[in-house]
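Please, does this match?
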Amino acid sequence: MTFQDSGGDRLGALVDGDTVVVDLAAAGPNRPAFASMQALIDAGEPGLAEARKLVADHPEHTRRPAGSVTWRSPLPRPVRLRDCGLFIEHLGPTGKSMAKRQAAAADDPEAELARLLATGRFDVPKLVTERVLYYGADHLSVSGPDEVINCPSYSALLDYELEWAAVVGRTGRDIAPDDAHSYIFGYTIFNDWTARDTQALIGFFNLDRDQAAESFRRLAALDVDTACFGHGKPILHGAGEAMRAVSL
């Protein structure tokens, strides 16, 4: 786990039924692997073995009551953060819920809901059932327990989902499913926060070209000057005009 004191973030380990935190940096001073959770991940199995040894036989002065420290996200600054759509049974109702929320502001919500659903924009794309798709989340905006979540100024409908994260511990390529566990450093709870009103504006995954073009047209109507996407370079000037051009 990662906790915070007056000196900043520190790497710790929970013991005694999660009632005590062992300060690994204090237990193993001047050891680079204990500088942070990311440093421990980068140290690989030798670093983990050293951490386990210290936890099993740690000095008394490294113990702190778990309730006396500020708990941070286990990995406050991940190198990369990808959110995968794996639960098809969840995506279907989510799309319909998004359409319902968008239709609520219409003069005739039921008619507007029927119209929105008929567009197919809120359906689960077929490709989602065939491949593991993901989007790049903001790895610089990770919050820990009891931290205040600041709602973006452009959203009036912030929502969250209870998810879990697999923290990848080493690099690999074309990994067989049976070997995947050896690449995972650990697991943690991951609550994904989403601006639902903005998500409804741009659609689910934009896999269909017509749906993507329609999303660009809606964004272009905002006449924004700057736009940043999950991949590629941001548009720093004239974003509205550029999106109108590609949506023709």
The helical segments are 24-27, 37-56, 88-103, 109-118, 196-202, 209-220, 239-246.
